[in-house]
């Protein structure tokens, strides 16, 4: 165990009734000392204001022992408590479905393993108890969206190792179990089996019978059946609280476990249970990654890929977006996690940090959520890596990844242009990379996986033929195709096969796209739509499969070599419209709002209406516009180059997305045939000769 880490003192077999092994250890990273305002006698602590707007560019650090609750008024899931290195006070983070925002940074002393719930009637976030590096707490606080106030109330001697949920039917916050406060947080403490309820004014002990003493159980309120549910905590017992008494539920479902978490999915009327650590005679420390659904009568296991193995994570439900949200937890190798996942009723999706992909997102729309570069001030740096691969540069976490024809993959510091590492991965680098979970995925004669930090080779998925397509990562699944006509899905964590589809030896050059649970890819003259979970074919459309698809607004957009650019219905594959008269739409489309942008071998970049296919504007470049366009903040970036003309045009154009007006252009030393990338207030381009530019 790393020095400075606190091993939270968890209850052991002697205090857990039927249990026969100690609870797992949860590490809490060292924190700064509590501020003077919150030290000393807690009764004398003044209200704490959080009206100062904190920095919203940051994100929550990895943690376990924390809580997620949904705030009706803010329309956000709030993250609070847990093992964090975030300073002397409790912070509140809000998840709006796109990114984390720091909402409050000056709350009570930081802690974990306490209780948090949202009192919707009074519009208050309620925090009770918890445990810090040196202290157990029995204090209670409320947050009204602007300031913290200390409440003079306590649920007996309960201090930590418990959970709270809101019974929305009876307007009560329900608390079960818990340990008493001790002077040394690593000492053994008495564990309770009491049930308490908060009515907005006071705590009342409403039961001392029912489940035995336990901690790290799953706890959720089922609003459809008006009952609070408890699962596990070292066993596979399942209990429900109806507001008057506990009742044991006989069921067959998840195995015995600790650190399990649950949330009620109101859209599906099912309780979602995920993960935990096995409670077995072997005392395994390897957590679980299974998903179970409770419909009020029985448990059903959802055999779908999802978050990696973990325990002591947090879950809540977003009723507006109809998603169950999961954050962090205690993963394998005693490592805290900081990823965000969403469950939509049938599948898990990694929401943050998302994989860094070719064309920015799984839909391959080419839209980057960064500041636009409407004015060009100069070259930040340039670097020659030798003749480049056919893959486009990808920037992830401040690192630009560029493949070369000599088989090396270069990792370049995006700010300085310094090479961090260059690894020989194959005879040729053939694809753009994907970056996820600290790993880099790239195609060559096989699909290779490297450590993002060091460039060290980790593993390869051997294929009979080379991999030209940029890997696609959605959630925990990696999708890619090889030139023997097979399309594969692998589990990112284990590298195990999820499914495999044979297209009949059709060549697959185009990068796959994902939208609405469907993978879209082209194989010669056919566009395939397959179920992302099992690879089963949903439809296929003949006559338009050579180029890269992009998915948006319920449609799939793809160019072809038959002088047409198509819009297909995403559910059926029906051709909705075709833009005719162009030469060959070789570039991948970029889509923003109701406009799709596509470059062409006739030297034009076209802006078309997504609904009708009618032309909005066109821009004439000096030569082929086969570089895939991208968008950032209302600016379209596209390169010009003709692979048949060694000394031909080689400009990067910046165009106003609304009008097509040229904002600026940059003349590179070589032809531009691949897509640019945008990040860190710069545009990155790579020439066919291997010159890499950072433009600012």
Secondary structure topology:
Elements: E1 6-7, E2 27-28, E3 48-49, E4 67-71, E5 76-80, E6 92-95, E7 100-104, E8 115-119, E9 124-131, E10 136-143, E11 147-151, E12 158-167, E13 172-180, E14 195-198, E15 203-207, E16 217-222, E17 227-232, E18 238-241, E19 246-248, E20 257-258, E21 261-265, E22 270-278, E23 288-294, E24 299-302, E25 314-318, E26 323-330, E27 336-343, E28 348-352, E29 367-368, E30 379-384, E31 394-396, E32 399-403, E33 408-413, E34 419-424, E35 434-436, E36 439-443, E37 447-451, E38 457-461, E39 472-474, E40 477-481, E41 486-491, E42 497-502, E43 513-515, E44 518-523, E45 526-531, E46 537-542, E47 550-552, E48 555-559, E49 564-569, E50 575-580, E51 590-592, E52 595-599, E53 604-609, E54 615-620, E55 630-632, E56 635-639, E57 651-656, E58 662-667, E59 677-679, E60 682-686, E61 691-695
Short characterization:
The protein contains no helices and 61 strands.
In round numbers, the mean pLDDT is: 84
Radius of gyration: 27 Å
Helix content: under 10%
SSE-based structural type = mainly beta
Biggest sheet statistics: 5 strands, antiparallel
Shape: elongated
> Gap between N and C termini, in Å?
45 Å
Strand content: 35-45%
Which regions are unreliable across 5 or more consecutive residues at pLDDT < 50? 1-57
Tell me the total number of β-strands: 61
* Major beta sheet, strand line-up: 3-11-10-9-8
Please count the helical segments. Answer: 0
Please provide a written account of the structure.
This protein is mainly beta and 696 residues long. The strands form 15 sheets. Strands 3-11-10-9-8 form a five-stranded antiparallel sheet, with no helix packed on it. Strands 20, 21, 22, 23 and 24 form a five-stranded antiparallel sheet that branches. It has a five-stranded mixed sheet with strand order 29-55-56-57-58, with no helix packed on it. Mean pLDDT is 84; it is low at 1-57.
